[in-house]
Amino acid sequence: GENVEQHPSTLSVQEGDSAVIKCTYSDSASNYFPWYKQELGKRPQLIIDIRSNVGEKKDQRIAVTLNKTAKHFSLHITETQPEDSAVYFCAAGSGNTGKLIFGQGTTLQVKP
Amino acid sequence: DTEVTQTPKHLVMGMTNKKSLKCEQHMGHRAMYWYKQKAKKPPELMFVYSYEKLSINESVPSRFSPECPNSSLLNLHLHALQPEDSALYLCASSQDRDYEQYFGPGTRLTVT
Hints:
The complex is a heterodimer of chains A (112) and B (112). In chain A, 0% of the residues lie in helices and 59% in strands. Chain A is an all-beta fold. In chain A, strands 2, 4, 5, 9, 10 and 11 form a 6-stranded mixed β-sheet that branches. A 5-stranded antiparallel β-sheet of chain A has the order 1-3-8-7-6, with no helix packed on it. Chain B has strands at residues 4-7, 10-13, 18-25, 31-37, 44-50, 53-57, 64-70, 73-79, 87-94, 102-103, 107-111. In chain B, 35% of the residues are buried. In chain B, strands 2, 4, 5, 6, 9, 10 and 11 form a 7-stranded mixed β-sheet that branches. Chain B has a 4-stranded antiparallel β-sheet with strand order 1-3-8-7, with no helix packed on it. Chain A binds chain B through residues 32, 34, 36, 42-46, 49, 89, 91, 93, 95-100, 102-105, and chain B through 31, 33, 40-45, 48, 50, 55-56, 90, 94, 96-98, 100-106.
């Protein structure tokens, strides 16, 4: 069935370093890839997304890359700050169903 | 109004109770969603409504009954729940089914 694998499950970096989270999806029909940040006790917050007709998208310190052939997409955070500490979820959506399959999440800890 | 709101924030109910969760958005979005999230897990899709019609039911047990009274409101009626149904119930909305989904703050449900 449809599946999204996300790695690593935990990631600890020093403030100012970069962080990279990787996801792999199985459904070839997937064409929409959002990333959500969820702080403890808060709602998932959409931080960036990419569609299958684009290979890379950047928004300030955050970037997402997509390799459709390999069915990989990644989140890159540069110049990490303690407030970036949270759980990050990738997801894949296909067609116009509205159905998102989420990865298992990555707990990012940024040490001051 | 640019947010999805949910009430109540917390709910404790017995296995014989009937209760309802409410979700509201005033962004003119035509797709609305219910998700279930267990601790340290990703959101799991339950239902998708598009233009006030149910378009996806992810094989959810009938003790969960969704309702979309109008384009701004989404309810989830609960009856005869089990303790394992205790979770954070998240509502989300999007402009249409293939657009960005924005989450509400969730209702923390405990079934005793």
